[in-house]
Design brief:
The structure holds 2 protein chains of 2 kinds. By secondary structure, chain A is an alpha/beta fold. Chain A folds into 2 domains: about 40 residues; about 180 residues, NagB/RpiA/CoA transferase-like (Rossmann fold, 3-Layer(aba) Sandwich). In chain A, about 30% of the residues lie in helices and about 20% in strands. Chain A starts with a helix and ends with a strand. By secondary structure, chain B is α/β, with parallel strands linked by helices. Chain B folds into 2 domains: about 280 residues, NagB/RpiA/CoA transferase-like (Rossmann fold, 3-Layer(aba) Sandwich), CATH 3.40.50; about 60 residues, no CATH class. Chain B contains 23 helices and 13 strands. The radius of gyration of chain B is 25 Å and the shape is globular. Chains A and B meet through helix 1, helix 2, helix 6, strand 8 and strand 9 of A and helix 2, helix 3, helix 4, strand 1 and helix 5 of B. Strand 8 of chain A pairs antiparallel with strand 9 of chain B. The complex binds iron/sulfur cluster. The site of iron/sulfur cluster has 13 residues of chain B, from helix 14.
Chain lengths: ~230, ~475
């Protein structure tokens, strides 16, 4: 019954559009060409970055306080990560407990006594995730859902550390859109692609900004130079 | 709170103007938004180019709407999304409720979407056996208060901190006893956390629908969309058909415009593309994904030459800069969409007969068009609605009489000038220290503000005198 009704509405909507625009051409090649032409304007319609080097631009953006609740650091190799995490615990007076994303390159690190399997459903936890990409324009890191990437890992903890491989830092959001397109062509689009640019915030009560509305209150980005 | 109706606009306005603090409360948020937007635009010299690109992207998609809708449907189905179509808001609400019932849902979490309000989803749930939980902080506040939203970006801007303190103490399981805003936000965080994790269905809107992938995109500062969508078994997206763009690359220029225009931030914290249901072995995510594509007056706008309005990306900049909105707030409009964009949308979503007064409230100062990130000519659209309203005889008889008399008078310049001169003398009788507090036939104006005393003579009189002086001097 619902299916029939939905079909009927579909027909109604399409015929209403056709009746409203009877003269519009529907040659797919023309439409695609027109759509493609529009993207050429992006070069002149996006903001200048703080540096021509994408990593530097991302770092400068965060250091200038333009990414809400976010700090960053660079480390030379992944082996330095546990040490950085320990410094993060010290800075925020946190116990040595964290939920590390379950991927090999993170799991096989020597975590020097840090407990790495906290329950993210509890508030106050620290999460650590591996970002697929970074975007300098917006100071974002990008995560893709997968068997090894629970999306909630990025949203439930009060503290979040995101590790971005230097080689995957892109200049603009447009560059990420091109990559997403390539992934789609391979039929490998994940369920979720999240661009995260700062911490969970709200200005809903009297316009005052509060961090940690539902998700992280503190975000620390660690860029790994040899990755 | 009693819900206002659009047809009672005049009464609603009087009620709003009689609230002493309302204007202050509205301006606290809108003035800040105005300043921050100005800064954001100043820091983005390419803004005009982005605006022109954004407009073209929307116009292109609207021009080929049937092509892109069909493409979106094909690709969404390929991702495993179940696609539904709804001609009206009522149909859309029913589809959503039926899906929830099929899954025997008890608890439903919802992340803010204006379309959800437009199609009456909130009321539909409140009249059902299911519990609706709003997860955006502002929506959470107005749900507890039983208010309709008063702004499309800050729906609870009419509520003060003191109101929130009272509401949270009354409704939260573990409320805070502090009145600090940070503590209030923490109280909501505690209250909503478990609800996110135990919800049966997650409902979201969509800021953009990507035709080439069948994806929907959510944009939030709080991250509540992802928390709403990920834990439950089923995700339902409700979206207007005008949300389409060809691809992610085409959504990017609009994303650059959206937050800068809405809050003055360069980007929002969370932009997520949702591509169907959970993949095999994914660590989390819903097992089933539905999308309800809603018309509800949009194709009518297309047919009636109002397609420019379909560019709207719901940033709220037009209302933040509107002198009328800043005086009366969102509730006076009596509809889901207030301000300039609402005055154009409501006559199509509801009817011009009930919402024609809103189109007349505009001062035509043009600020809304100046700040609209996709160049929607709001004053032009409002003028065209006024013309339709006149043709359909929706104006009260007194208004029609006054306008018709003026039209007749304007054709007789001598009589017009004579009566204008009499009018000036008449007005001066009521003037005290340069202001008129009361005068017959003007109570609509003088009830809430004074009228300035006119000059000593009419404009035409002064103009003629000046011209004469000039030609005499030459
Ligand atoms: S009409 Fe323009 S300014 Fe108003 S909400 Fe829509 S996009 Fe924003």
């Amino acid at each position: 019954m619902n299916k029939q009704k939905s079909e009927l509405s579909r027909t109604k909507i399409f015929s209403a559009i056709k009746n409203a625009k009877p003269t519009v051409t529907m040659d797919v090649k023309t439409i695609q060409q027109e759509a493609f032409e529009l993207l050429k304007e992006s070069e002149f319609a996006r903001p200048k970055l703080l540096s021509e080097d994408a990593t530097q631009a991302l770092v400068l953006r965060i250091e200038a306080g333009l990414v809400i609740g976010t700090s960053c650091e660079k480390i030379s190799t992944l082996d330095d990560l546990p040490n950085s995490v320990n410094q993060f615990f010290d800075k925020h007076s946190l116990p040595q407990e964290i939920k590390v994303q379950g991927i090999d390159k993170l799991e096989k690190l020597d975590w020097e006594g840090i407990s790495t399997d906290s329950d993210i459903e509890n508030d106050n936890t620290v999460g650590l995730c591996w970002a697929e990409y970074g975007v300098a324009e917006t100071g974002s890191f990008v995560v893709h859902s997968s068997p090894k990437m629970p999306i909630l890992l990025n949203f439930l903890p009060l503290y979040l550390i995101a590790v971005i491989p230097k080689s995957k830092i892109l200049h603009y959001m447009d560059d990420y859109a091109l990559i997403a397109n390539e992934i789609a062509k391979k039929g490998e689009t994940p369920r979720n692609m999240c661009l995260i640019s700062g911490v969970s915030g709200t200005t809903d009560i009297e316009g005052v900004l509060v961090q940690g509305a539902h998700g992280p209150e503190v975000l620390h980005i660690i860029i790994v130079e040899d990755q | 709170m009693q819900v206002n109706k659009p047809e009672d606009f005049t009464k609603n306005v009087s009620k709003a103007l009689a609230q002493p603090d309302l204007k202050k409360i509205i301006r606290r948020t809108t003035d800040k938004a105005e300043t921050k937007r100005t800064e954001a635009v100043a820091n983005f010299p390419e803004f005009e180019n982005a605006r022109s690109q954004g407009q073209k992207v929307k116009d292109h998609t609207i021009k080929y709407m049937d092509h892109y809708l069909a493409e979106f449907e094909k690709n969404a189905l390929a991702q495993g999304t179940i696609v539904h179509w709804a001609s009206t808001g009522e149909e859309a609400s029913k589809i959503v409720l039926d899906i929830c019932r099929q899954h025997k849902a008890k608890k439903v979490t919802r992340s803010k979407s204006m379309l959800g309000e437009e199609i009456g989803l909130t009321h539909a749930f409140d009249n059902s056996e299911m519990e609706r939980i709003e997860t955006d902080l502002a929506e959470h506040i107005i749900q507890l208060a039983g208010d309709p939203p008063s702004h499309i970006v800050w729906p609870a801007m009419h509520r003060s901190r003191e109101d929130v303190v009272k509401l949270f103490r009354e409704f939260h399981e573990d409320p805070t006893y502090s009145e600090e805003i940070t503590d209030l936000v923490r109280s909501a965080r505690r209250d909503l956390r478990n609800k996110f994790l135990t919800s049966d269905i997650g409902i979201s809107g969509s800021n953009f629908l990507l035709a080439d992938s069948g994806s929907s995109c959510t944009v939030t500062n709080e991250g509540n969309a992802e928390l709403t969508i990920t834990p439950p078994k089923v995700h339902i997206v409700t979206a207007g058909i005008e949300k389409l763009v060809p691809s992610m690359a085409h959504a990017v220029p609009l994303l650059r415009l959206l937050t800068r225009s809405a809050t003055g931030a360069e980007i929002t914290q969370y932009i997520t593309f949702h591509n169907g249901s959970k993949r095999p072995n994914d660590a989390d995510g819903p097992q089933e994904c539905h999308i309800v594509l809603v018309d509800n007056g949009r194709t009518k706008m297309l047919a009636e030459g109002m397609e420019e309005m379909l560019r709207c990306i719901r940033c709220g900049a037009c209302m933040n800069h509107c002198v009328v909105y800043k005086h009366i707030g969102g509730h006076a409009y009596g509809s889901v969409y207030p301000g300039p964009m609402g005055s154009v949308l409501t006559p199509h979503l509801d009817s011009l007969e009930v919402a024609n007064k809103q189109t007349h409230a505009c001062t035509m100062n043009g600020r809304c068009e100046e700040v609209c990130p996709v160049n929607i000519p709001l004053p032009k659209l409002l003028r065209s609605l006024r013309a339709q309203s006149w043709q359909k005889k929706y104006e009260p008889l007194t208004n029609r009489f006054v306008v018709q008399s003026f039209a007749e008078l304007a054709k007789r310049p001598r009589l017009f000038q004579l009566l204008s001169s009499c009018g000036v003398i008449f007005m001066k009788v009521f003037s005290r220290k340069g202001w008129i507090k009361y005068m017959p036939f003007t109570s609509g104006w003088t009830r809430n503000r004074d009228l300035i005393e006119p000059g000593s003579t009419t404009f035409m009189h002064q103009y003629k005198k000046m011209k004469k002086a000039k030609s005499g001097g030459a």
